[in-house]
Amino acid sequence: MAIRKEKFTMIKVAAQNNIKADKIDEFIAIAKNLVAETRKYDAGCVRYELLQDVKNPQLLTMLEEWDDQEALNNHLLSQHFKDAMATFAGYLEKPGEINLYKTLA
Amino acid sequence: MAIRKEKFTMIKVAAQNNIKADKIDEFIAIAKNLVAETRKYDAGCVRYELLQDVKNPQLLTMLEEWDDQEALNNHLLSQHFKDAMATFAGYLEKPGEINLYKTLA
After folding, report:
1. Where is the ABM domain (chains A, B) (predicted)?
2. How far is CA B2 from the centre of its chain?
């Protein structure tokens, strides 16, 4: 019996950030740079997007898709991610919410 | 000067549903059917997915992408959407959260 390759497991992330009104432009500039660096350097990144709520411009969400948990973990350890998070900490109006998802359909 | 076509406006939706623990399987079955009918019938639907939080199986999120607000509005008026929502009302543990997003990067 042949050895079967482990099942491919996509993981999706929605990370909601509630940003101070006077820090929105700065957040967006740094987040756009984070998006560009993540897409360029981080293996296993399928999708990495910066979204803004149409009714509440202070709600800025990263929508992500990774090949697997290991790829996501490596992203969280990357210098560009850690640098961005250190800056974002001062921009938060209230704690955000991070959800990790599997796709059912 | 040539008339320029109106800018294409994609809209993304994250609709979080908090489902009663004993209704998860029923919700998933109906939501999968809703996904299939939406993909098959609703014009302007780019992406329509059913996601489940990996740590909290009661959090079931629809992740959507529409050509524009009109396409989303037509989906909300469709019979398959209204039928599913009528059923889901009895499955909710607490009110969900719906966010409409534009893409910045």
Report:
1. 11-101
2. 37
